[in-house]
Write a structure and sequence with these properties.
CATH topology of the largest domain: Four Helix Bundle (Hemerythrin (Met), subunit A)
Number of helices: 11
Order of helices and strands: HHHHHHHHHHH
Structural class: mainly alpha
Helix content: 55-70%
Shape: flat
Length: 270
């Protein structure tokens, strides 16, 4: 059974660690975010051979210190919450645990410390610190637009896949292996690179016909890029302005001057 003093301490720590309304809570989260940023930066720097060769020991020591601090923070969160199991199984609880496990795994499995970049997921807490939760509705609107346009996007991707297979096969027949078109899959790879206007340049057509086809693919690529943008844009416009709603089948998307439902034919409200 807890003593009143221990219970008051836990409540005070809870407001600091999990809350952002108090100055101490805001300070705790800001310090935590800076610690996460610095620790992720150290992991990135450790992957550079020249830096690791010169400062490898110091970077490893710093990582141990940060892992120790994050471990203490994780245990502190477990201690102050009323239902530790709920915290452990929550999104932030899982991310917090995954952010400290790689260091301990690296003691058993070499190279596992590179997984510590997953710690960057903890920066999601910045939404709480900066009061960005009001943008959740906008994020939900974008998600609904993507879900609503998923079938159109799938049809679009299928059409693009068909185009690259056809053009890749044609380029394999037109060009020679010396130009880099050694197989149909490799020709399809070139077609994808060209169609998306990436243009690595590792493979290039040499014949006049091949260059003409490449020009067609390049021009086609510019028009294709605009298609998914338009599809999602239309759905976003519908989400932002759903228009009149049918009182019978609850269908939306009607024009402002529409009188009857486009789905069931019922009369729309004025």
């Amino acid at each position: 059974m807890e003593t009143p003093g221990r219970s008051a301490l836990r409540n005070r720590l809870y407001r600091t660690v999990f809350g952002t309304t108090t100055p101490a809570g805001k300070l705790f989260d800001v310090v935590l975010l800076w610690a996460i940023l610095i620790s992720v930066l150290l992991v990135m720097l450790e992957s550079v051979p020249a830096i690791k060769a010169r400062y490898g020991h110091a970077l490893y020591l710093a990582e141990l210190i940060f892992t120790g601090l994050f471990t203490v923070e994780y245990l502190l969160r477990l201690w102050i919450v009323q239902k530790p199991r709920h915290y452990v199984l929550s999104f932030f609880g899982i991310v917090d645990l995954l952010s400290i496990l790689p260091t301990f795994l690296s003691l058993i499995i070499g190279g596992a410390q590179s997984l510590m970049v997953i710690r960057v997921l903890r920066l999601i807490r910045v939404f709480r610190v900066l009061k960005l939760a009001r943008f959740i509705n906008e994020a939900g609107m974008l998600g609904r637009a993507l879900v609503a346009s998923r079938r159109k996007i799938m049809v679009f991707l299928l059409a693009v896949l068909t185009i690259v297979v056809i053009f890749g096969t044609v380029m394999y027949l037109v060009e020679s292996p010396e130009a880099g078109f050694t197989s149909i899959p490799r020709s399809i790879y070139w077609t994808i690179v060209t169609l998306t206007t990436v243009g690595y340049g590792d493979i290039a057509p040499q014949t006049t016909i091949g260059q003409m086809i490449a020009s067609m693919i390049m021009i086609l690529g510019y028009s294709i890029i605009a298609v998914p943008t338009g599809i999602v844009g239309v759905e976003l416009a519908k989400s932002a302005n759903p228009g009149k709603e049918c009182m019978t089948c609850h269908a939306t998307g009607h024009l402002g001057d529409a009188r009857f439902c486009r789905r069931c034919g019922a009369e729309l409200p004025v």
